[in-house]
Protein backbone atom coordinates (compact mmCIF):
# COMPACT_ATOMS: atom_id res chain seq x y z
CA UNK A 1 0.00 0.00 0.00
CA UNK A 2 1.20 3.54 -0.80
CA UNK A 3 0.00 6.28 1.52
CA UNK A 4 0.34 10.01 0.85
CA UNK A 5 0.11 12.74 3.46
CA UNK A 6 -3.33 14.36 3.57
CA UNK A 7 -4.59 17.66 4.97
CA UNK A 8 -4.80 17.67 8.74
CA UNK A 9 -2.31 14.83 9.08
CA UNK A 10 -4.77 12.17 7.89
CA UNK A 11 -3.42 9.57 5.49
CA UNK A 12 -5.17 7.53 2.83
CA UNK A 13 -4.24 4.97 0.19
CA UNK A 14 -3.18 6.49 -3.12
CA UNK A 15 -4.81 5.28 -6.35
CA UNK A 16 -2.93 4.19 -9.47
CA UNK A 17 -4.27 7.29 -11.23
CA UNK A 18 -2.89 9.59 -8.53
CA UNK A 19 0.43 7.76 -8.57
CA UNK A 20 0.71 8.18 -12.33
CA UNK A 21 -0.08 11.88 -12.01
CA UNK A 22 2.63 12.34 -9.38
CA UNK A 23 5.36 10.55 -11.30
CA UNK A 24 4.47 11.52 -14.87
CA UNK A 25 6.59 13.85 -17.00
CA UNK A 26 5.53 17.40 -17.92
CA UNK A 27 3.42 17.84 -21.04
CA UNK A 28 4.89 19.30 -24.20
CA UNK A 29 8.55 18.63 -23.49
CA UNK A 30 10.91 20.45 -25.86
CA UNK A 31 14.08 18.82 -24.45
CA UNK A 32 15.07 15.63 -22.62
CA UNK A 33 13.71 15.55 -19.05
CA UNK A 34 15.75 13.36 -16.72
CA UNK A 35 14.08 11.61 -13.79
CA UNK A 36 16.54 9.65 -11.65
CA UNK A 37 15.26 6.66 -9.67
CA UNK A 38 17.16 5.27 -6.66
CA UNK A 39 16.66 3.29 -3.46
CA UNK A 40 18.81 3.77 -0.37
CA UNK A 41 18.94 2.45 3.18
CA UNK A 42 18.28 5.03 5.88
CA UNK A 43 22.01 5.03 6.71
CA UNK A 44 22.88 5.81 3.09
CA UNK A 45 23.80 2.43 1.59
CA UNK A 46 23.00 2.07 -2.10
CA UNK A 47 23.13 -1.74 -2.09
CA UNK A 48 23.06 -4.88 0.03
CA UNK A 49 25.43 -7.59 -1.10
CA UNK A 50 26.35 -5.49 -4.12
CA UNK A 51 22.78 -5.17 -5.44
CA UNK A 52 20.03 -2.62 -4.91
CA UNK A 53 17.37 -5.36 -4.95
CA UNK A 54 18.06 -6.08 -1.29
CA UNK A 55 16.75 -2.63 -0.34
CA UNK A 56 13.42 -2.47 -2.16
CA UNK A 57 9.93 -3.44 -1.04
CA UNK A 58 6.67 -3.87 -2.95
CA UNK A 59 5.96 -0.13 -3.01
CA UNK A 60 9.43 0.70 -4.31
CA UNK A 61 9.12 -1.97 -6.99
CA UNK A 62 5.77 -0.50 -8.04
CA UNK A 63 7.28 2.96 -8.45
CA UNK A 64 10.30 1.49 -10.27
CA UNK A 65 7.96 -0.24 -12.73
CA UNK A 66 5.95 2.95 -13.11
CA UNK A 67 9.13 4.74 -14.15
CA UNK A 68 9.46 2.33 -17.06
CA UNK A 69 5.76 2.67 -17.89
CA UNK A 70 6.04 6.43 -18.25
CA UNK A 71 9.37 6.90 -20.04
CA UNK A 72 10.61 7.03 -23.61
CA UNK A 73 13.98 5.50 -22.67
CA UNK A 74 15.69 3.86 -19.68
CA UNK A 75 19.16 5.33 -19.10
CA UNK A 76 21.65 3.24 -17.08
CA UNK A 77 25.37 2.97 -16.54
CA UNK A 78 27.08 -0.19 -17.75
CA UNK A 79 28.30 -1.14 -14.27
CA UNK A 80 24.76 -1.13 -12.89
CA UNK A 81 23.38 -2.95 -15.93
CA UNK A 82 25.98 -5.70 -15.50
CA UNK A 83 25.64 -5.98 -11.71
CA UNK A 84 21.83 -6.08 -11.80
CA UNK A 85 21.63 -8.45 -14.78
CA UNK A 86 19.80 -6.07 -17.08
CA UNK A 87 17.97 -7.38 -20.13
CA UNK A 88 15.90 -5.54 -22.68
CA UNK A 89 12.52 -4.37 -21.38
CA UNK A 90 9.88 -7.02 -22.14
CA UNK A 91 6.37 -6.09 -23.26
CA UNK A 92 4.93 -7.83 -20.20
CA UNK A 93 7.02 -5.65 -17.88
CA UNK A 94 5.19 -2.45 -18.80
CA UNK A 95 1.50 -1.61 -18.85
CA UNK A 96 0.52 -1.61 -22.51
CA UNK A 97 -2.72 0.26 -21.81
CA UNK A 98 -0.93 3.06 -19.98
CA UNK A 99 1.76 3.48 -22.62
CA UNK A 100 -0.79 3.45 -25.44
CA UNK A 101 -2.95 6.02 -23.65
CA UNK A 102 0.06 8.29 -23.20
CA UNK A 103 1.10 7.92 -26.85
CA UNK A 104 4.32 6.07 -26.02
CA UNK A 105 5.99 3.24 -27.94
CA UNK A 106 5.00 -0.23 -26.68
CA UNK A 107 8.41 -0.80 -25.06
CA UNK A 108 11.14 1.71 -24.11
CA UNK A 109 14.71 0.97 -25.20
CA UNK A 110 17.57 0.65 -22.71
CA UNK A 111 20.33 3.24 -23.23
CA UNK A 112 23.60 2.04 -21.66
CA UNK A 113 26.38 4.50 -20.89
CA UNK A 114 29.87 3.00 -21.25
CA UNK A 115 32.94 5.04 -22.11
CA UNK A 116 34.87 1.94 -23.27
CA UNK A 117 31.94 0.35 -25.11
CA UNK A 118 32.08 -2.57 -22.69
CA UNK A 119 28.74 -4.18 -23.60
CA UNK A 120 29.33 -7.59 -25.16
CA UNK A 121 27.44 -8.51 -28.36
CA UNK A 122 26.26 -11.62 -26.48
CA UNK A 123 24.82 -9.53 -23.62
CA UNK A 124 21.19 -10.17 -22.56
CA UNK A 125 20.65 -6.51 -23.42
CA UNK A 126 20.81 -7.54 -27.08
CA UNK A 127 19.68 -11.15 -27.11
CA UNK A 128 15.94 -11.65 -27.21
CA UNK A 129 15.06 -8.01 -26.67
CA UNK A 130 12.10 -6.51 -28.49
CA UNK A 131 13.76 -3.11 -28.89
CA UNK A 132 17.51 -2.89 -29.64
CA UNK A 133 19.51 -1.11 -26.94
CA UNK A 134 21.25 2.20 -27.42
CA UNK A 135 24.92 2.06 -26.43
CA UNK A 136 26.31 5.50 -25.58
CA UNK A 137 30.10 5.50 -25.77
CA UNK A 138 33.10 7.60 -26.79
CA UNK A 139 35.42 8.07 -29.74
CA UNK A 140 38.20 6.54 -27.59
CA UNK A 141 36.36 3.21 -27.33
CA UNK A 142 37.90 0.50 -29.52
CA UNK A 143 36.45 0.70 -33.01
CA UNK A 144 36.16 -3.08 -33.17
CA UNK A 145 33.87 -3.15 -30.14
CA UNK A 146 31.67 -0.45 -31.58
CA UNK A 147 31.45 -2.22 -34.91
CA UNK A 148 30.63 -5.57 -33.28
CA UNK A 149 27.74 -4.01 -31.37
CA UNK A 150 26.36 -2.35 -34.49
CA UNK A 151 26.52 -5.71 -36.27
CA UNK A 152 24.70 -7.30 -33.31
CA UNK A 153 21.87 -4.80 -33.73
CA UNK A 154 22.67 -2.09 -31.18
CA UNK A 155 22.24 1.60 -31.89
CA UNK A 156 25.72 2.91 -31.04
CA UNK A 157 26.05 6.61 -30.20
CA UNK A 158 29.47 8.27 -29.92
CA UNK A 159 29.18 11.14 -27.45
CA UNK A 160 32.49 12.63 -26.40
CA UNK A 161 36.14 11.70 -26.79
CA UNK A 162 37.68 10.17 -23.65
CA UNK A 163 34.61 10.44 -21.40
CA UNK A 164 30.93 10.35 -22.24
CA UNK A 165 29.56 13.82 -22.90
CA UNK A 166 26.15 13.52 -21.27
CA UNK A 167 24.79 16.66 -22.92
CA UNK A 168 25.67 15.20 -26.30
CA UNK A 169 24.18 11.86 -25.21
CA UNK A 170 20.88 13.48 -24.27
CA UNK A 171 20.91 15.43 -27.53
CA UNK A 172 21.25 12.12 -29.40
CA UNK A 173 18.28 10.72 -27.47
CA UNK A 174 16.35 13.90 -28.32
CA UNK A 175 17.09 13.36 -32.02
CA UNK A 176 15.46 9.94 -31.67
CA UNK A 177 12.36 11.47 -30.06
CA UNK A 178 13.31 10.12 -26.62
CA UNK A 179 12.73 12.98 -24.17
CA UNK A 180 11.18 11.20 -21.18
CA UNK A 181 14.37 9.81 -19.66
CA UNK A 182 14.18 7.37 -16.73
CA UNK A 183 17.67 7.08 -15.24
CA UNK A 184 18.11 3.97 -13.08
CA UNK A 185 21.70 4.64 -11.98
CA UNK A 186 24.28 3.82 -11.03
CA UNK A 187 26.00 6.22 -8.67
CA UNK A 188 28.75 7.26 -11.12
CA UNK A 189 26.24 8.12 -13.84
CA UNK A 190 24.04 9.96 -11.34
CA UNK A 191 27.06 11.90 -10.08
CA UNK A 192 28.01 12.86 -13.63
CA UNK A 193 24.46 14.04 -14.34
CA UNK A 194 24.59 16.17 -11.17
CA UNK A 195 27.95 17.65 -12.19
CA UNK A 196 26.55 18.61 -15.59
CA UNK A 197 23.31 19.98 -14.00
CA UNK A 198 21.14 17.59 -16.00
CA UNK A 199 18.89 16.18 -13.24
CA UNK A 200 15.29 17.42 -13.34
CA UNK A 201 13.74 15.07 -10.78
CA UNK A 202 15.08 12.65 -8.17
CA UNK A 203 12.78 9.85 -7.05
CA UNK A 204 14.35 8.20 -4.01
CA UNK A 205 13.04 5.50 -1.71
CA UNK A 206 14.48 5.25 1.79
CA UNK A 207 14.28 1.64 2.88
CA UNK A 208 13.79 0.99 6.63
CA UNK A 209 17.14 -0.78 6.92
CA UNK A 210 20.42 -0.07 8.64
CA UNK A 211 23.09 -1.69 6.49
CA UNK A 212 26.49 -0.52 7.65
CA UNK A 213 29.37 -1.99 5.67
CA UNK A 214 31.16 -0.10 2.93
CA UNK A 215 28.38 0.30 0.35
CA UNK A 216 28.59 3.60 -1.54
CA UNK A 217 26.14 6.50 -1.81
CA UNK A 218 23.55 6.93 -4.56
CA UNK A 219 25.81 9.48 -6.28
CA UNK A 220 29.59 9.65 -6.62
CA UNK A 221 31.86 12.10 -8.40
CA UNK A 222 32.82 15.77 -8.13
CA UNK A 223 31.02 17.91 -5.58
CA UNK A 224 28.41 20.04 -7.35
CA UNK A 225 25.60 21.20 -5.04
CA UNK A 226 22.24 21.64 -6.78
CA UNK A 227 19.14 23.08 -5.11
CA UNK A 228 16.03 20.86 -5.10
CA UNK A 229 12.53 21.25 -3.75
CA UNK A 230 10.27 18.55 -2.34
CA UNK A 231 7.54 17.56 -4.80
CA UNK A 232 5.80 14.60 -3.11
CA UNK A 233 5.99 12.29 -0.10
CA UNK A 234 4.60 8.75 0.17
CA UNK A 235 5.15 6.02 2.72
CA UNK A 236 4.51 2.28 2.72
CA UNK A 237 5.61 -0.48 5.10
CA UNK A 238 7.93 1.97 6.91
CA UNK A 239 9.64 2.96 3.63
CA UNK A 240 9.62 6.62 2.61
CA UNK A 241 9.22 7.47 -1.09
CA UNK A 242 10.24 11.01 -1.97
CA UNK A 243 10.27 13.07 -5.14
CA UNK A 244 12.47 16.14 -5.46
CA UNK A 245 12.55 18.44 -8.49
CA UNK A 246 15.10 21.05 -9.45
CA UNK A 247 14.26 24.37 -7.88
CA UNK A 248 14.19 26.23 -11.20
CA UNK A 249 11.97 23.67 -13.00
Automatic annotation (TrEMBL):
Pathway: Cofactor biosynthesis; riboflavin biosynthesis. Pfam families: RibD_C. The keyword NADP applies. The keyword Oxidoreductase applies. Keywords: NADP, Oxidoreductase. Residues 32-239 form the Bacterial bifunctional deaminase-reductase C-terminal domain. This is Pyrimidine reductase family protein. The lineage of its organism: Bacteria, Bacillati, Actinomycetota, Actinomycetes, Pseudonocardiales.
Amino acid sequence: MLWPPRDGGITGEITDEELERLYDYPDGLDRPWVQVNFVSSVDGAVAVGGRSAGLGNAADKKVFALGRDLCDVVLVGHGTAAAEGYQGVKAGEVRAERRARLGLAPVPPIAVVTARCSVEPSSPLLGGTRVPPIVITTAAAPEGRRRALVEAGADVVVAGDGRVDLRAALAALDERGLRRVDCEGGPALFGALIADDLVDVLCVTFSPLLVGGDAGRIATGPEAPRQLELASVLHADSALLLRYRRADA
